[in-house]
């Protein structure tokens, strides 16, 4: 049916999917930019629970498309499932708008987002494949442009939602008495919920755009899309979604359950891999072994990748100077949550450069193999983490590194992402027998999800103690006696509250009242200077928590590079065997073959 759609309609159909994907990513990354800060600063999570909660949610978000893809392809329809997923995501972000100061409510909202992502993500990509089905000359370019939708949406939302949060927190702090009950509901945190509302609006805009352009996809989709929608199928998907929300809430609520779920999922993938390798035809084994090696390497990459939304996020909050200066000239200030936007910004910059590099080697018959790209990707990631690890050498004030550290660290991390994670599904298509393709796609998503949680565990090694009292034994903190004499209530504060009190934002008056201290702005100049000195010494103490972790992650990146290079000869041998088998199989069926990378 797809082949009857004229070429011009393919472009319009693709535009419809492109736009809804862009708005969906706008909502997701706008939420991701704030979620760790929301848990730590708004809900009072300590670092480790915040890291593990978000990493468990990220694991579920990565795993869920493995189920959602099947629902769309075989049961409810690719197009219908994508649309339902976008609607469920809007509900999930809408729940984040509700000012319920309850961790359980947060877990439910994240569970709804897990379901929505599972229904949406796999099916949006499948629609692009179906639009260009049989048109191999255009499908690679289509997916390149489609990937831009992800980066456009994520860039704008990561830059926008922190600004919105800060503006409304500052503008309406303590000024909502005119709205009955609002002060009790929002306190001084209205900005958080307005920012999440913007994420919800992004999904609604995407849905509205789809409804306007829906006719461009009228002939695109899986078989169930071309039949009248049956209410019992819709009810079944909704009921299944409710069950998944409940299960996700339990997993997020109980850390032990999360660990059991993640480790069981990882073990299941390895067992199934082993079974398939043992039982498959002899000629298929090399391809499956290559796929297994690359899946394991992908897991290691996503452990590094997860640091962007966990340890690097908290590092930016506590130990990165938000001011951008060049040759002594101040350029602008950056909110800590906005540093994540450098990831898609760098991808925009590096993607065409990498494409030109690949073309350069291809013209000289020196294509880099997927395995070699993984090795270079790990090396880039290692350099990025060594830059973060050296942050203490590039300080602008005690314990505060220059913001340019984040720029270059994200640059190398993004290069590593382009060289590794972007190839994940490519190696499935290249090396795995077609009849196993569906399972392998699912296994790839599950392995990526497992890696997200493992990344949260790694990030927790840099968890900073919550109480200021935990740092007072350090020899670097020399002004404690003076602080105890001048303003003793500060020593009993939580670290986050202390910095909010100093900045005058996010409930500073409430913090001052509960700690029995004046507002920071009301202190005498000499006392403020003493507090600033104390804060600088705390920064000096907290920075090594992060830089030590980043250094060892750099070492781990080098180790992964060495391992990836060490297995290259094995990979080449397996690749030759796989290519020979594929050629024989294709010749037997009268099908043209695709040459091996080697």
Categorize the overall geometry: globular
Q: Over all CA atoms, what is the radius of gyration?
A: 25 Å
* CATH homologous superfamily classification of the largest domain: MFS general substrate transporter like domains
* CATH T-level topology of the largest domain: Growth Hormone, Chain: A
CATH class of the largest domain: Mainly Alpha
Main sheet attributes: strand count, strand direction, barrel closure? 2 strands, antiparallel
Tell me the helix content. Answer: over 70%
Q: Which structural class is indicated by helix and strand composition?
A: mainly alpha
Number of helices: 21
Low-confidence segments, ≥5 residues, pLDDT <50?
A: 1-8, 176-185, 594-598
The domain tally reads 3
Strand order of the largest sheet: 1-2
Element-level helix/strand string: HHHHHHHHHHHEEHHEEHHHHHHHH
- Tell me the distance between the termini: 37 Å
CATH architecture label of the largest domain: Up-down Bundle
Q: Using DSSP, what is the number of strands? A: 4
Strand fraction equals under 5%
Question: How does this model look, in words?
Answer:
- A two-stranded antiparallel sheet has the order 1-2. The protein has a two-stranded antiparallel sheet with strand order 3-4.
- By secondary structure, it is an all-alpha fold.
- It is about 75% helix and about 0% strand.
- The chain has three domains: about 1-255, MFS general substrate transporter like domains (Growth Hormone, Chain: A, Up-down Bundle); about 255-465 and about 545-598, MFS general substrate transporter like domains (Growth Hormone, Chain: A, Up-down Bundle); about 470-540, no CATH class.
């Amino acid at each position: 049916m797809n082949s009857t759609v004229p070429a011009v309609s393919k472009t319009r159909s693709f535009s419809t999917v492109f736009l809804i994907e862009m708005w969906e990513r706008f909502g997701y990354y706008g939420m991701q930019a704030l979620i760790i800060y929301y848990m730590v600063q708004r809900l009072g999570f300590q670092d480790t629970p915040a890291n593990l909660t978000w990493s468990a949610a990220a694991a579920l978000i990565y795993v869920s498309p493995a189920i959602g893809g099947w629902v769309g392809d075989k049961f409810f329809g690719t197009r219908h499932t994508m649309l339902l997923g976008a609607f469920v995501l809007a509900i999930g972000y809408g729940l984040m708008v509700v000012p319920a100061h309850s961790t359980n409510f947060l877990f439910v909202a994240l569970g709804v987002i897990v379901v929505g992502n599972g229904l949406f993500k796999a099916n949006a990509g499948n629609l692009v494949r179906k639009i260009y089905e049989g048109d191999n000359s255009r499908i690679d370019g289509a997916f390149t442009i489609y990937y831009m939708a992800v980066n456009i949406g994520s860039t704008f939302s990561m830059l926008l939602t922190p600004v919105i949060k800060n503006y409304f927190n500052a503008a309406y702090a303590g000024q909502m008495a005119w709205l009955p009950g609002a002060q009790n509901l929002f306190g001084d945190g209205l900005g958080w919920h307005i920012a999440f509302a913007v994420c919800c609006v992004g999904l609604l805009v995407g849905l509205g755009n789809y409804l306007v352009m829906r006719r461009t996809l009228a002939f695109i989709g899986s078989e169930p899309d071309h039949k009248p929608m049956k209410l019992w199928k819709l009810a079944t998907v909704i009921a299944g979604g409710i069950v998944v929300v409940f299960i996700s809430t339990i997993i997020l609520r109980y850390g032990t359950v999360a660990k059991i779920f993640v480790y069981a999922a990882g073990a299941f993938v390895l067992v199934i891999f082993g079974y398939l390798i043992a039982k498959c035809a002899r000629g298929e084994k090399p391809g499956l072994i290559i796929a297994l090696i690359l899946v394991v390497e992908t897991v290691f990459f996503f452990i590094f990748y997860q640091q962007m939304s966990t340890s690097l996020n908290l590092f930016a909050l506590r130990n990165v100077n938000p001011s951008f200066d060049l040759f002594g000239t101040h350029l602008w200030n950056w909110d800590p949550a906005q540093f994540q936007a450098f990831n898609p910004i760098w991808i925009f910059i590096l993607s065409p450069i990498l494409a030109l590099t690949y073309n350069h080697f291809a013209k000289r018959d020196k294509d880099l193999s997927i395995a070699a790209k993984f090795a270079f990707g790990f090396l880039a990631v290692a350099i990025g983490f060594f830059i973060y690890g050296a942050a203490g050498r590039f300080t602008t004030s005690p314990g505060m590194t220059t913001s340019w550290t984040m720029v270059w660290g994200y640059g190398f991390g993004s290069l590593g992402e382009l060289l590794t994670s972007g190839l994940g599904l490519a190696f499935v298509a290249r090396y795995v027998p077609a009849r196993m393709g569906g399972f392998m796609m699912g296994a790839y998503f599950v392995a990526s999800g497992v890696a997200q949680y493992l990344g949260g565990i790694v990030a927790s090694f840099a968890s900073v103690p919550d109480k200021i009292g935990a740092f007072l034994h350090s020899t670097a903190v020399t002004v404690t006696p003076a602080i105890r004499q001048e303003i003793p209530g500060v020593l009993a504060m939580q670290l986050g509250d202390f910095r909010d009190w100093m900045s005058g934002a996010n409930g500073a008056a409430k913090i001052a009242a509960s700690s029995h201290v004046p507002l920071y702005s009301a202190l005498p100049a000499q006392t403020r200077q003493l507090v600033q000195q104390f804060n600088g010494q705390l920064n000096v103490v907290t920075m090594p928590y992060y830089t030590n972790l980043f250094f060892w992650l750099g070492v781990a990146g080098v180790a992964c590079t060495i391992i990836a290079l060490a297995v290259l000869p094995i990979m080449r041998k397996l690749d030759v065997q796989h290519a020979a088998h594929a050629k024989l199989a294709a010749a037997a069926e009268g099908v043209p073959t695709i040459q091996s990378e080697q």
